[in-house]
Amino acid sequence: MRLRYAGKSGKRRPLIKKMPPLNAVRAFEVAARHVSFTKAAAELNVTHGAVSRQVALLEEWLGVALFHRAPSQLTLTEAGRGYLIEVSAALDRLVAASIHVTKQASPVVLRANAPPTFTMRWLIPRLSAFQRRYPDVEVRLTTSVDPLNFQENTYDIAIRGQHGPLSHFKSVPFMTEIIAPICHVDLQETMHLIHPRDLEAHTLISYATEPYSWSEWLGATGVPDLKPANMLRFEQMYFALQAASEGLGLAMVPLFLAIDDIISGRLCVPFGPLGIKRRTYYANSTAPLRAASPASEFCKWLQKEGRDTERSITAWAADRDWVL
């Protein structure tokens, strides 16, 4: 843009085009569109007198009448009709430009990291509820079971199963993890799994990231020296859970990851609450959560979803007179 300069003193001053009072322009556009000060006042949520004063201010600034005012009728002057065309187009362009800038603005991003199977089996199926409530927050998920390292990894919230809050972090508990053996119902019905000793004839499924090993469970249930017929090992919990779902053996997994299949009758917990182990799932961050921040709202949502899942497991156990 080229600027012209003038000034009697020799000082260079930019000659800036005069801008009309924008509130007055807006009042004129609405009044001219309705050809009524009363309807304009209703749309703008102001008084009739306020609209009239704004239009008079604009007419004084322009030095030309924009309306013919009669006791029972308001009409636009020729200058008013021409000015309305230009003003409407200018306001439309302003709206379009504002919408464009809004769409180009960077979204609010929340970066969350969680274990892979937890993410696939529990978090993702529920995430749409958070997105509907907070459509302006873009949740970016990554998966890991590694120890927390907020310096080297770019995430705001890290979800982990823990035995307690972590020092030097803000740890928000949101769900109790109950770990127990599960298997396909056909395996339970055909092989009559009643006591842990019955596992001598079965395949036990393990995985590299398991938080509760078969040896720990067997020791807790009084058969520490039991040797199963076979062991099937995987790297990730997800594959172990899938193998158990296909009837390949028994896997030691958190019940909340399998509760939907358990309630539907596809999977079962053959030994009930015997030898179960508890941990807690936490959402961890490096700093205190600011009220109403995306991270704070995400943690509140996790707590609500966690309570719902716990209630489902408790109700299912109560039907069997189990105390978990």
Automatic annotation (TrEMBL):
Gene3D superfamilies: Periplasmic binding protein-like II, Winged helix-like DNA-binding domain superfamily/Winged helix DNA-binding domain. PROSITE patterns: HTH_LYSR. Keywords: DNA-binding, Transcription, Transcription regulation. One of its GO terms (molecular function) is DNA-binding transcription factor activity. The keyword DNA-binding applies. Residues 20-77 form the HTH lysR-type domain. It holds the Pfam family LysR_substrate. Signal peptide: none annotated. SUPFAM superfamilies: Periplasmic binding protein-like II, Winged helix' DNA-binding domain. GO terms for biological process: DNA-templated transcription. InterPro entries: LysR-type_TF_proteobact-type (IPR058163), LysR_HTH_N (IPR000847), LysR_subst-bd (IPR005119), WH-like_DNA-bd_sf (IPR036388), WH_DNA-bd_sf (IPR036390). Belongs to the LysR transcriptional regulatory family. This is Transcriptional regulator. It comes from Advenella kashmirensis W13003.
